[in-house]
Design brief:
Helix content of chain B: 25-40%
Radius of gyration of chain B: 22 Å
Structural class of chain B: alpha+beta
Largest sheet of chain A: 5 strands, mixed
Largest sheet of chain B: 10 strands, mixed
Oligomer: heterodimer
Helix content of chain A: 55-70%
Number of helices of chain A: 44
Number of helices of chain B: 14
Structural class of chain A: mainly alpha
Chain lengths: 1007, 448
């Protein structure tokens, strides 16, 4: 049975046992007298060596053992005891192999190891009272006296450094006993927390006795209660953490408040100092007004504060309040006062907003490489569990007094029993929580430091120690990492489990859960999640999950997560409604539910999009099949203009009814709009790409409509067109800057084939252009695309299409400078490309006049702009928020660019582009604009264009200006990447950016 | 409903309050009030009271722009002068925060401007305290247009006038302020005939600004009740000093005065020096806010207690920023005094820009220039130039021009208030410029 084999070398045997530094270990074992000639000196020594090998960090244990033995008066004593006493072996070696800090304590106090001889240690946990008596006795307070309650009760006979030293030693001894039981697995993790809290309470009591001893005899009498908060109050303390307290002071009898508070403050401060030197910092920061408030308040003053000033998180902190030291009667009076307010807090005006904010804080991920190593604050860490449990308590504890425990695990049990959390979920979550707490305890025991950070991935020794300390053997690190990932995942899904799934139990029969959330409780929770119409939301949930069909069952597993995603977006109610509508349409389509269930990303994206954008909800409502797009990033990339055009044109070619053909093309357009909108909202494309993609879609649908119109006219003529025909893009479409709600600005140009009379050609061209417009304007269930040809010569009075020669003649004779300006953005769009090129060549001298603009023309442009600013601003809105015509808006920037193009286009080829941003870049590169000014203009233009698109996405219809309030504004701000509820910041940024742009415009355009 | 709101509702019952006045200010600092019956108050707490924002200077430029006034129950006070007798039916007031219909704060609300500035300082760990010295004139009745104002007395600095109107006046006013929970530190007769000063106890800047608004109102009410007229106009008399509002500023970190450093000869910390440097560097930009009227500049250029040059000095009463003498063992009261603001400023905006300028100095670590020991007034122009003393803007027009180029002020006020303020002040200047003044008539008419 013995693992030792006379044939192997000593170090080899030690390696097999798991020592990492066999040579050093062998030396140490020899010095301990346990090892000789490559094997243990006897069977007893062999047992000791195998026991050492089994602890968390055997090498650490051996080194500590050597130091401990050297500190002994009789060195053989310790080794004999270890050989003879199995209990001592397990406890002492376990502690030494886990905690360097406790090892140091044992070396400093060489007789303290003897307390671990007592096998009764594991039989019973120390009582609260017992701990109190031990620590009070340590500072020389009379035994059996009344506990200190303020200026009276047991008084320490030690003071100053001596008191601190004595108390620290006894505290460490108690900690040593507890740790020895903990590492040998004889105490459950929740009991460790409870016992540590008792030990903390006893330490505070002894600290108070020391403080009392230092008080002058003429100090005004006072009562002082110490209320434990946080983990101390919740009886789930760590080995090392700040101990959170709040103090309540009162005069004795009818004494003077102020004088009594002065004494109480002195006592409290001294107690904090003593305990801080002994064990851990005492933190009174949770008191009213935090660090700037008085340390001790009277009961009435606490009450007044909580009645008038306290915020929701302060009530959340009070959930765990518990009298731990000092005047316990005063402590319970305090609880009687604050407890009802805690449970009323869910009825406060700002409760929902504050809870939302707290939830977002919890869910906001830590940055950097430490995030993965954090067991407390990281995603899926301890704080996630604690916070979620506390929020549920605040929401439901108001009406149900059975869910008010201050201890996380107990509260989780209570919530499960009340039906607020699924039983299975609660059990799994409790397991994860226990596991994480165990890890945290082991991490802290090592050096008795306040840490929640796992060793770095390259710290093999550290990782191995932690993994083994938690109880894994063999390839401990691998097992540990795997388990940690599993528990982390479990916790990460906790919001789904805790918050959302029980909502379904209110409306659907879930077989696993006997207890059900009542409808009232479900409404309260939905409201806390940000649903404006919780009753409506419940109805939708009911409709989605009712029945026992496969569809209902899948929805029941999907919805908990979906509700959370809706709640994170701008308009949860609209999102859920739209989801119900889409699901109603696609409910029985097999791929739909499979997609949502199996492609996790698709479901999350769908929820986010539906609750962010009415345009997407509308488009999806009409074409639910497009949900497929969401599963695949490649599907969400805009397609090229050529691809779109051939697809659209092929579609219309297949149809012989003209209206039907164009309707089909418009259906394709709807899907493409959806693709762009989704990519835009999901941040997969930037705004320049969005503008280009929307322009490409418009080009494709116009090409398809032109093809159809041409075929129709040809059918009527029973001959091919006697003309060449081309459509030129103007305005934003020409610049590749189309928005979701933009019209398509175009010019029609034609040229008669040889031998065709001008009049006949003009007639045919009119028919084609007119038919194209008619087909696209037919009523249909998709967003309209208005074809606007008003930029043509003579505007609405002029012929719809002109021949190339006619254009040339017109611009030669009549052209106004604003027409030259409009032509800057002309670009080929559809129809005969060669004709389009010749058109552009013909107008080149108009738009890039040789020698630049005359001074009169410059003045004319400035005057037109000034007049437009006075006349074209939309009425009834704040002009500063008008997107196109407002100061610093789109027109301001574009006119600056266009004036430069008119003046310098003839000499600078790269200025000759219909697109705004490239022209702006070229102007800056050629020194026509100060680069800083160009940057200001670029930012403003990009921002306003983005806002204009976001408004259409959010509202499903275009707007001329930004709203100043409301859900739409919130939605736009979020679509631009602002956090929730920062409409004010967003508007301020918008105004700032446009103001700066405007001041550039005034300098470079008007002067 | 929270406990604070319940407290207000209970008090209404107990004190037999018949009207509740909801107070807020427009961007220029004019007090606005809407009275509601107690029965409506419960609704007002939850829903707010709707009003048309476009009717209030600077709130909104759009018609039908609903806004909400949300009463802040922490500011509830019974108005002492509105009760007919000690226990008769009374009137109470609360300050309001202004919100948009969706419940988010209105960025046009001056209280919100100050809240944001305070929030930014709080993020850096600081709380901002202020202590204003409010000067004003008591006149014999309100002068009709064109009439010369007449002060109530001919007394001077610290004069005790037996049975003087101002004596009784100050007593009544202070009693009333104290009854409204506003502590008065100090009050005395000022230099000019009829001129009074009331100093409010230092408090956090938001409470102080609320208190200044209340104080101005109380003083006007008490004056009316005594048949005299009180005015906060910065400079009502050409030949007498104007009414300033010298303001003492301090920053606290927790309960520590962040301006105090015992090891410095002036007992000023680095924070304090950077803060002063910030005030000086941005002094010209913020002048349009601290001195917002055409008339304000007649006080600034007249000398005396008003500082027209950008400089600081230890206990130098001619400097823009004065560092009062350190009193031993009073580290908590270390502070600096800014002497430019006048009594007709909008205190919310004024405190916001002072704080922002100082904080900028701290953030950027501005170096404090050497202090001015001389009486700046007694120097010649050339001497001032040699010492690099730049003047503050000498007119509202100049002040607006400087402010318009200030990103600091735009950021602090928020773009909406910034934009409104500039437009409003430019209009005021344009209107002023077109006036033919008594000066012109007196000088030109007889000879031209």
């Amino acid at each position: 049975m013995t693992p030792f084999d006379s044939r192997g070398s000593g170090t080899g045997q030690l390696v097999r046992l798991g020592f990492q530094e066999p040579a050093a270990t062998q030396d140490a074992l020899v010095r301990l007298g346990l090892w000789d000639s490559g094997r243990p000196v006897d069977d007893g020594a062999g047992t000791v060596v195998t026991s050492v090998a089994d602890v968390a960090d055997p090498d650490l244990a051996v080194l500590a053992l050597v130091r401990l033995q050297q500190a002994q008066a009789d060195p053989s004593d310790l080794v004999h005891a270890l050989c003879a006493h199995e209990g001592l072996r397990a406890r002492l070696l376990g502690v030494l192999g886990t905690s360097t800090a406790l090892g140091d304590h044992l070396v400093a106090h060489p007789d303290d190891w003897r307390v671990l001889l007592d096998d009764d240690l594991v039989a019973a946990r120390p009582s609260r009272h017992g701990l109190q008596s031990r620590l009070l006795a340590a500072v020389g307070a009379p035994t059996g006296a009344e506990l200190p309650w303020g200026t009276g009760g047991a008084r320490a006979s030690l003071t100053g450094a001596a008191a601190v030293e004595a108390l620290r030693r006894e505290y460490r001894r108690c900690l040593l006993e507890l740790a020895s039981r903990d590492v040998t697995g004889t105490v459950a993790v929740e009991d460790v927390g409870g016992e540590l809290a008792d030990l903390a309470a006893a330490t505070l009591t002894a600290g108070l006795a020391v403080a009392l001893a230092g008080l002058p005899h003429d100090a005004t009498p006072c009562r002082l209660a110490v209320i434990g908060m946080g983990k101390c109050g919740g009886r789930e303390l760590n080995y090392v953490s700040d101990v959170d307290v709040v103090f309540v002071g009162e005069p004795v009898g009818d004494g003077d408040d102020d004088a009594a508070l002065r004494t109480a403050t002195r006592l409290a401060a001294e107690m904090m100092r003593v305990c801080g030197e002994v064990a851990w910092p005492v933190d009174a920061g949770l008191r009213p007004e935090g660090g700037s408030g008085p340390l001790v308040r009277t009961l009435a003053s606490h009450e007044a504060y909580y009645r008038r000033w306290a915020r929701t998180w302060e009530f959340q902190a009070l959930l765990k309040a518990r009298p731990v030291a000092g005047d316990l009667a005063l402590g319970s009076a305090y609880l009687d006062v604050v407890a009802p307010m805690v449970w009323d807090s869910a009825g406060r005006k700002d409760f929902v907003e504050e809870v939302q904010a707290m939830r977002r804080r919890v869910e906001s991920t830590l940055k950097g490489d430490k995030a993965d190593r954090e067991v407390k604050l990281g995603r899926g860490g301890l704080r996630d569990v604690e916070f979620a449990v506390q929020l549920l308590q605040l929401v439901h504890g108001r009406t149900d007094d059975t869910v008010r425990s201050g201890t996380t695990l107990r509260a989780l049990d209570q919530l499960a029993a009340g039906g607020y959390v699924g039983r299975e979920d609660a059990r799994h979550l409790a397991d994860s929580y226990r596991w994480l707490r165990t890890v945290e305890h082991r991490l802290q025991l090592h050096r008795l430091r306040r840490t929640h950070l796992l060793p770095a991935p390259d710290d093999e020794v550290g990782l191995r120690r932690v993994a083994r300390a938690v109880g894994y053997r063999g390839d401990a690190v691998t097992t540990f990492s795997r388990e940690r990932a599993g528990y982390g995942r479990e916790v990460r899904r906790l919001h789904e489990k805790l918050f959302y799934r029980p909502l379904l139990s209110a409306v659907a029969r879930l077989p696993a859960d006997q207890a059900r959330l009542t409808p009232a409780a479900a409404r309260a929770r939905l409201e806390a999640l940000g649903f404006a119409d919780p009753a409506g939301a419940l109805r939708h949930l009911e409709a989605l999950t009712e029945g026992v069909s496969r569809r209902a069952v899948i929805q029941q597993t999907l919805l908990p997560a979906m509700i959370g995603w809706f709640a994170d977006a701008a308009d949860p109610d609209a999102g859920l409604l739209a989801f119900r509508q889409v699901s109603d349409r696609l409910g029985s389509t097999p791929w739909y539910l499979r997609l949502l269930r199996d492609e996790g990303r698709a479901a999350e994206r769908l929820a986010h999009l539906l609750a962010s954008s009415r345009l997407v909800a509308d488009l999806l409502g009409r074409a639910p099949e497009a949900v497929r797009l969401l599963a695949d990033d490649a599907e969400l990339q805009p397609r090229s203009r050529a691809t779109l055009e051939s697809a659209f044109v092929a579609t219309v070619r297949r149809r012989d009814d003209w209206e039907g053909a164009v309707a089909a093309a418009r259906g394709l357009r709807r899907e493409e709009l959806l693709r762009v909108a989704c990519a835009d909202l999901l941040g997969l494309v930037d705004q320049e790409q969005v503008g280009q993609a929307l322009s490409d879609v418009a080009a494709a649908v116009l090409s398809a409509a032109l093809a159809t119109a041409t075929r129709k006219v040809e059918t009527e003529l029973r001959a091919p067109l006697p003309i060449r025909f081309s459509v030129l893009a103007m305005g934003r479409l020409g610049g590749g800057e189309q928005g979701y709600g933009s019209d398509a600005d175009v010019l029609f140009v034609h040229e008669a084939h040889d031998g065709v009379a001008d009049g006949e050609a003009a007639g045919v061209a009119f028919d084609v252009a007119n038919e194209l417009r008619r087909l696209l304007a037919l009523p249909a269930p998709d967003p309209p695309l208005e074809v606007d040809a008003d930029l043509r010569p003579e505007g609405k009075q002029g012929p719809l299409s002109r021949s190339l020669a006619s254009y040339a003649a017109y611009y030669d004779r009549w052209s106004h400078v604003w027409e030259a300006q409009a032509l800057l953005r002309a670009a080929p769009l559809a129809g005969d490309p060669e004709l389009a090129d010749r058109f552009l060549a013909a107008v080149a001298p108009v738009r890039y006049p040789e020698g630049g603009l005359s001074q009169e023309s410059v003045v004319e442009i400035r005057r037109i702009k000034a007049r437009m600013e006075a006349e074209r601003l939309p009425r009834g809105v704040d002009p500063r928020l008008a997107l196109k015509m407002g100061p610093g808006g789109l027109a301001d920037v574009e006119w600056v660019v266009q004036l430069l193009q008119l003046r310098h286009g003839h000499e600078l080829p790269d200025l000759r582009t219909p697109a705004t941003l490239p022209a702006l870049r070229a102007a800056a590169a050629h020194g026509l604009l100060d680069p800083a000014d160009a940057e200001v203009l670029r930012r403003a233009w990009t921002l306003v264009a983005h806002v204009r698109n976001a408004l259409v996405l959010v509202r499903a219809k275009p707007a001329v200006s930004l709203p100043t309030s409301g859900r739409d504004l919130d939605g736009v701000a979020r679509a631009l990447g602002y956090p929730a509820d920062s409409q004010g910041d967003f508007l301020d940024d918008y105004r700032r950016s446009t103001r700066r742009a405007r001041s550039v415009v005034e300098r470079v355009f008007y002067a | 409903m929270d406990k604070q709101q319940e407290f207000v509702l209970r008090t209404l019952e107990e004190r037999d309050i018949r009207f509740v006045r909801l107070w807020f200010t427009d961007v220029l600092g004019t007090l606005k009030s809407v009275a509601i019956a107690p029965a409506e108050l419960e609704g007002a707490f939850t829903e707010g009271i709707g009003f048309d924002g476009s009717a209030i200077e600077g709130f909104s430029r759009v018609h039908e722009s609903d806004m909400l006034a949300m009463p802040d129950p922490a500011t509830f006070q019974v108005l002492p002068w509105r009760s007919e007798s000690a226990d008769g039916p009374g009137t109470a007031r609360m300050f309001c925060d202004i919100t948009m219909p969706d419940g988010t704060p209105s960025w046009a609300d001056p209280r919100h401007v100050l809240r944001r500035a305070l929030g930014k300082a709080a993020d850096a760990g600081f709380t901002f305290y202020t202590h204003p010295e409010i000067e004003f004139f008591l006149l014999k009745g309100q002068p009709a247009p064109g009439e010369q104002p007449v002060p109530v007395d001919a007394a001077g600095y610290f004069d005790l006038t037996p049975h003087g109107v101002s004596q009784d006046f100050r007593r009544d006013a202070i009693t009333m302020l104290e009854r409204m929970g506003i502590s008065v530190e100090f009050s005395h007769h000022e230099v000019a005939p009829g001129q009074q000063e009331i100093d409010l106890r230092y408090a956090d800047a938001l409470s102080t600004a609320d208190n200044i608004l209340t104080t101005r109102h109380v003083i006007k009410e008490v004056a009316l009740s005594q048949g005299v007229y009180a005015t906060f106009m910065p400079k009502p008399f050409s030949d007498q000093p104007g009414s300033g509002m010298h303001t003492h500023l301090s920053l606290f970190e927790g309960d520590q005065n962040a301006f105090y450093d015992g090891s410095d000869p002036l007992h000023l910390s680095k924070v304090a020096k950077h803060f002063i440097a910030g005030l000086l560097k941005h002094a010209a930009e913020i002048t349009a806010i601290t001195n917002q009227w055409v008339n304000s500049y007649k006080r600034l250029i007249s000398g005396g207690e008003a500082p027209p040059y950008v400089c600081w000095g230890s206990n130098n009463r001619s400097a823009l920023v004065r560092v009062p003498m350190y009193k031993p063992k009073k580290s908590g009261s270390t502070r600096i005094e800014v002497r430019s603001p006048d009594s007709a400023t909008n205190p919310y905006l004024c405190f916001a820009v002072l704080l922002a300028a100082g904080m900028k100095g701290i953030e950027e670590g501005y170096e404090l220039p050497p202090g001015a020991e001389d009486d700046v007034w007694s120097l010649t122009d050339a001497e001032r130039r040699a010492m690099g003393l730049t003047p503050l803007p000498s007119s509202l027009a100049e002040a607006i021009d400087v402010m318009e180029r200030s990103e600091l002020v735009a950021e602090t006020l928020g773009e909406q208030v910034f934009d409104f303020f500039l437009r409003n002040k430019r209009a005021e200047w344009t209107e002023y410029r077109s006036q033919v003044t008594p000066f012109e008539l007196g000088r030109y008419l007889p000879v031209l």
